[in-house]
Amino acid sequence: MIGSDERNSTTQEVADELRRRSAFVMVSHVKPDGDTLGAGLALGIALKRLGKRVAYFQQDPVPRNLRFLPDTSFVSREVPADFPPDALYVFCDMSDYTRAGEFLPKIDRANMLDIDHHLGNSHFGAFNFVIPSECSTGTVVVHLLRELGVEIDREIATCLLTTIMTDTGGFMHSNTTPEVLELSAELIRAGADKEEITEEIFANKRVAATRLLGRVIDEMTFAHDGRYCYSFVDDRMLAETRADGEDTEDVVNVLRSQEYVEVAALFKDIEGELRVSLRSNGRVNVQAAAKRLGGGGHFRASGLTYHGSLKDAFAAVESALVAEGL
Ligand code: 5GP
Ligand code: MN
User: Fold this and answer.
1) Is 84 a domain residue?
2) How far is the centre of ligand 1, averaged over its atoms, from the C-alpha of 20 (Å)?
3) Which ligand gives the minimal distance to the CA of 134?
4) Residues near ligand 2 ion, CB 5 Å cutoff
5) Which of 36, 54, 103, 295 allows an S-S link to 28, with CB 3.0 to 4.6 Å?
6) CA of 301 to the centre of ligand 2 (A)
7) pTM for this entry
8) Tens digit of pLDDT per residue, the chain (326 long)?
């Protein structure tokens, strides 16, 4: 239930704060996906409709497959210099504000609103609106839009349906509840183009990405009686296939979808940073495993940054997964 977590503000308290402030900076996380960006855009567009001033902060550029979303031309790694000091920074889809990256200016906690659906969110804001039972941060935002009485028009509906389709894997993951399907139907009726979203975020694969996938598949290793599958991407593989970091996004799901595999890990050793993506079929809690190594996420999808060699990362991640029941 919303508000059953005493660290959360109520829907009404958050809506009152949104009405009270005049300027907002919607903040998305590094390596943005359709949920962090779509949720921020949906709420940002709604606030503009209410006459508010809205900016969008995102450290990384808008990924190619999300450029079709409305308002993405306003997304920037800088906050406009003339923004009022009491602008509210609205963090979408991150368990901690540090996920926004080091380019984010220093912000008083009093000016932070944390909107999220991750397990283990640190409730870092003066206002926190965290609902882990929601499938996406976008559907958390829907509670606020209803409370504010903003009409969900075609643009807002497109952003919201993108958050749902991103975080349910196109309605395939277990978070695709009847309520999610009902809301999605409402969004499609409001003008969201499901076919366009499918095409933009799931199709349109670059040939380089598919070549890279082939290389990752060649490097797959199976362990624990085939229940664990892992592989890696490094700078050499990217150079040889002419792919880039964005082309690695879906790869871990291919590993997880192999027969008998319960947990998959993809190690991304790119430009001096070692990122690990974990996916589970629902038996092993990969959020808890990632947390052991300083990361986080959801029960079935999590990630972390590892400080050390690829070989050490393989061992550390496997130990963390074993500790969580692999
Ligand atoms: P991905 O594998 O797609 O990068 O991330 C899967 C999930 O884990 C996402 O929900 C993402 O927000 C979360 N996640 C990924 N990396 C980190 C991390 O370093 N820290 C935390 N707290 N969550 C992460
Ligand atoms: Mn999300």
Assistant:
1) yes
2) 32
3) 2
4) 35, 93, 137, 167
5) 36
6) 10
7) 0.92
8) 455 688 899 999 999 999 999 999 999 999 999 999 999 999 999 999 999 999 999 999 999 999 999 999 999 999 999 999 999 999 999 999 999 999 999 999 999 999 999 989 999 999 999 999 999 999 999 999 999 999 999 999 999 999 999 999 999 999 999 999 999 999 999 999 999 999 999 888 889 999 999 999 999 999 999 999 999 999 999 999 999 998 998 899 999 999 999 999 999 999 999 999 999 999 999 999 999 999 999 999 999 999 999 999 999 999 999 999 99
Whether the CB-CB separation of 22 and 52 falls below 8 Å is answered with yes
Domain shared by 281 and 161, yes or no = no
Kindly report the protein residue whose alpha carbon is nearest to atom 8 of ligand 1: 302
The DSSP H or E segment spanning 55 is strand 53-57
Domain that holds residue 224: 207-323
Let me know whether 164 and 219 are in one domain. Answer: no
Distance (Å, whole) CA 39 – CA 27: 10
The owner of tokens 């999610």 is 180
58 lines ligand 1 (CB under 6 A): no
CA distance 12 to 206: 44
